[in-house]
């Protein structure tokens, strides 16, 4: 153990544990001597644990990325027959003797080249190489850690698979390999241990093995446990290879899966081929599938299916496939010869049995022909209808059979690619459900399909699929936050919903909502055990199932009777209040698409300011204040959208709009916009008298009484206080009078009999803030 992290599974655990509670690794467990010491940190980033697999050329480790704090896989170049660890450490030393160093370095160069190529390539569901580096005289590639198991482990558990199960697992492998081929990369190392079945359902193809060819002529054992999946020519450096080598590997894996028998090594088959076709082993597959597999396993590349793309198309095509071992020309030549011999044999037998009896040779055939003719004539009328029906039925069955084909595997492909593959095979593709996509993964990847791949289905039928998706809301889909329940759902909104979700309709629920109007939206289909009501902001996966529940009306309403109420009883009611009234009185209500901004004096937000009647022809007719309502009437509420935020000259009114403007003109404009105006005068030396210094608004609405789009600013019905300039504040200076001097050459100060005189100035008092400005008011100057 290293610290608190288990070197077997890289999960954190308590330091005192001697056995990992996650993977069961014991603290005293010793690693294989050929592997890096557990706990070693490579590239100052990857803490390496125990080896997951030790192969002929590489060792694969579980590791922990200390920078990204996640598990990873580290693959080390380690051709064990050419090298070993130096002094029990991590560094690699090449074994002495022969050309060991040459082969080691050639393989190392190819390993690095392949790692860098894969690091730069991006193919869906092919495990990416995240990092490449050299250390310890060798090279390493880093790949993401996946939860699941290899196909090798699955085969060991199940032993044998049906052709349908096999195609479901291997068609994604074909698709990934084909994508690699399109980028000029041959895999060369496809085997069950390199195919990973992720717990979430994806099929992943692991790293390739082009570097393996570097050791074909090396002085070492190159026949490993996976060699039986390799085409014979892959071990010949002088033979040119192409995409057919990967075709061979895929078909070899499929052969083992459906037969439950290990296939013979390709090189051994060159000497003596004992591989029998699946059909001869009584495996339940079609003749076409049998021929495709055996053609993919052809020993000579010129006879083999030469590309994975052709292999995929062969499995979904309805065209008959001939095995390369027995061309169609040979069959056609043999059949007529066999029929001719058989005819001659019967002729000779007839001649020998008849002898030379001339009369019998003439009479017996005539009697026989006559009996057949009479019997046929009698029987024809009796069986004519039955035989004709049987022939017609037989012809129909044959016709239907000719129109069936094998369902292609579209799993783990993007929807667009899957759709094209389905259409190429003669099928339609339809999304019927969704699963949540991981945050780092795109949408519309096919995860499930029905029917499964390989099943024979009618050409032109539909394959339904489940795809990955992210969450959305009804607000995002419909581009509005306006509630759609209790309305007649528009065709445009229906289209948007059906383009985004798998939509089911439910018209069974009785209600006083107008029949056909939308009662609610629910997750799932009406057959699902668990559903939940959705509002406009509920998160729901794209492409998932939703149910639109519509009102079915009521069966117990008798039309045309007086309800005892009129239109005025429904004004200023919301939809719930109107529905309660309708339930008691026996009429229907719904919400009209007509809506307008109204002050709360007329109708608060969400309440009816006007009532309409929905006629049988679908037209909405406005009703008068005192109009009577009868049972069965379809009444529409025109709902208030609350107060409207005021715009003047195309711009929203704010507290700064009229700063510096003549008060009288500002007052007139504000009152025209529906605002109550009050004013206060204030001395101000920078703003001319009679002009607006500032305004402040008193909103008469609570936040929940204003539609979200109209919140902020100034609304109809609000009050605005205007501060008006009274000009500069007037000032008065008091001067003390000078007293005249007395005679006799001396002067003395003398107070006047009245003492000092004080002067006072009067100034106008500004109006109080409670005074309301009218059109006749004038500002004091």
Round the mean pLDDT to the nearest integer and report it.
80
DSSP strand (E) fraction? Answer: 15-25%
- The total of helices stands at 14
Number of separate strands? 32
The CATH topology label of the largest domain is: Transferase(Phosphotransferase), domain 1
How many individual domains?
A: 7
Structural class: alpha+beta
Sheet with the most strands: spatial strand order:
1-2-3-4-8-7
> N-to-C terminal Cα separation, in Å?
92 Å
Rounded to an integer, what's the Rg over CA atoms?
A: 46 Å
Written account of the structure:
By secondary structure, the chain is α+β, with helices and mostly antiparallel strands. The protein folds into seven domains: 1-28; 41-144, Phosphorylase Kinase, domain 1; 148-326, Transferase(Phosphotransferase), domain 1, CATH 1.10.510; 406-469, Trypsin Inhibitor V, Chain A; 472-551, Trypsin Inhibitor V, Chain A, CATH 3.30.10; 562-640, 2-Layer Sandwich (Trypsin Inhibitor V, Chain A); 647-725, Trypsin Inhibitor V, Chain A (2-Layer Sandwich), CATH 3.30.10.20. The protein has 14 helices and 32 strands. The strands form eleven sheets. It has a six-stranded antiparallel beta sheet, covered by helices on one side. It has a four-stranded mixed beta sheet with strand order 23-27-24-25, with helices on one face. The model is unreliable at 213-220, 326-402 and 734-781 (pLDDT under 50). Keywords: ATP-binding, Kinase, Membrane, Nucleotide-binding, Transferase, Transmembrane, Transmembrane helix.
């Amino acid at each position: 153990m290293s610290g608190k992290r288990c070197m077997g599974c890289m999960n954190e655990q308590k330091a005192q544990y001697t056995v990992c509670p996650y993977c069961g690794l014991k603290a005293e467990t010793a690693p294989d001597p050929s592997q890096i010491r557990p706990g070693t940190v490579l590239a100052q980033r990857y803490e390496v644990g125990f080896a997951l697999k030790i192969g002929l050329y590489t060792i694969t480790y579980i590791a922990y990325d200390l920078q990204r704090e996640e598990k990873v896989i580290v693959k080390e170049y380690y051709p064990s027959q050419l090298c070993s660890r130096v002094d029990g450490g991590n560094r690699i030393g090449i074994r002495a003797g022969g050309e060991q160093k040459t082969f080691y370095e050639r393989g190392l160069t190819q390993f690095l080249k392949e790692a860098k190529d894969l690091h730069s390539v991006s193919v869906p569901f092919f495990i990416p190489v995240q990092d490449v580096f050299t250390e310890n005289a060798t090279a390493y590639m880093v790949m993401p850690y996946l939860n699941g198991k290899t196909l090798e482990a699955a085969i060991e558990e199940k032993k044998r698979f049906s052709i349908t199960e096999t195609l479901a697992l291997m068609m994604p492998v074909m698709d990934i390999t084909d994508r690699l081929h399109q980028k000029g990369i041959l895999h060369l190392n496809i085997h069950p241990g390199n195919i990973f079945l992720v717990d979430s359902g994806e099929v992943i193809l692991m790293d390739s093995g082009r570097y393996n060819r570097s050791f074909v002529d090396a002085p070492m054992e190159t026949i490993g446990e996976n060699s039986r999946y390799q085409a014979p020519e892959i071990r010949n450096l002088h033979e040119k290879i192409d995409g057919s080598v990967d075709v061979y590997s895929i078909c070899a894996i499929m052969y083992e899966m459906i037969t439950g028998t290990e296939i013979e090594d390709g090189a051994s088959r060159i000497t003596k081929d004992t591989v029998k076709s699946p059909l001869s082993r009584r495996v339940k597959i079609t003749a076409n599938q049998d021929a495709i597999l055996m053609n993919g396993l052809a020993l000579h590349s010129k006879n083999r299916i030469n590309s994975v793309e052709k292999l995929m198309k062969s499995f979904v095509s309805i065209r008959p496939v001939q095995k390369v071992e027995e061309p169609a020309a040979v069959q056609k030549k043999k059949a007529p010869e066999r029929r001719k011999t058989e005819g001659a044999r019967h002729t000779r037998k007839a001649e020998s049995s008849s002898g030379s009896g001339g009369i019998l040779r003439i009479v017996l055939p005539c009697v026989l022909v006559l009996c057949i003719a009479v019997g046929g004539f009698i029987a024809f009328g009796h069986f004519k209808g039955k035989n004709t029906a049987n022939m017609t039925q037989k012809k129909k069955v044959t016709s239907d059979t000719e129109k069936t084909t094998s369902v292609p595997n579209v799993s783990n492909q993007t929807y667009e690619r899957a759709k094209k593959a389905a259409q190429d095979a003669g099928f339609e593709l339809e999304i019927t459900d969704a699963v949540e996509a991981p945050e780092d993964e795109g949408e519309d990847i096919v995860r499930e399909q029905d029917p499964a791949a390989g099943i024979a289905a009618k050409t032109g039928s539909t394959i339904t699929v489940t795809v990955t998706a992210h969450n959305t809301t009804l607000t995002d889909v419909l581009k509005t936050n306006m509630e759609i329940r209790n309305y007649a759902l528009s065709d445009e909104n229906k289209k948007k919903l059906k383009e985004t979700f798998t939509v089911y309709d439910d018209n069974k629920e009785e209600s006083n909502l107008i029949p056909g109007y939308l009662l609610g939206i629910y997750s799932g289909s009406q057959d699902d055990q668990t559903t939940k009501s959705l509002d406009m902001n509920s998160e729901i996966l794209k492409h998932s199932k939703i149910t639109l529940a519509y009102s079915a009306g009521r069966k117990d309403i008798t039309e045309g009777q007086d309800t005892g109420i009129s239109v005025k009883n429904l004004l200023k009611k919301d939809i719930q209040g109107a529905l309660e009234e309708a339930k008691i009185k026996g009429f229907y209500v719904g919400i009209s698409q007509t809506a307008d901004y109204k002050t709360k004096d007329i109708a608060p937000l969400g309440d009816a300011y006007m009532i309409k009647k929905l006629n049988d022809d679908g037209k909405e007719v406005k009703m008068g204040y005192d109009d009577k309502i009868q049972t069965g009437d379809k009444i529409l509420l025109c709902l208030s959208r609350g107060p409207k935020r005021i715009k003047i000259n195309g711009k929203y009114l704010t507290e700064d709009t009229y700063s510096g403007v003549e008060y009288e003109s500002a007052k007139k404009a504000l009152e025209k916009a529906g605002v109550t105006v009050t004013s206060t005068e204030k001395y101000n030396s920078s703003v001319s008298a009679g002009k607006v210094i500032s305004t402040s608004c008193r909103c008469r609405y609570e936040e929940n009484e204003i539609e979200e789009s109209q919140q902020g600013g100034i609304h109809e019905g609000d009050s605005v206080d205007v501060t008006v300039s009274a000009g500069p504040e007037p000032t008065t200076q008091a001067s003390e009078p000078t007293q005249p001097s007395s005679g006799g050459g001396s002067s003395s100060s003398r107070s006047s009999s009245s003492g000092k005189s004080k002067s006072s100035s009067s100034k106008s008092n500004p109006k109080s803030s409670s005074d309301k400005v009218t059109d006749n008011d004038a500002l004091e100057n």
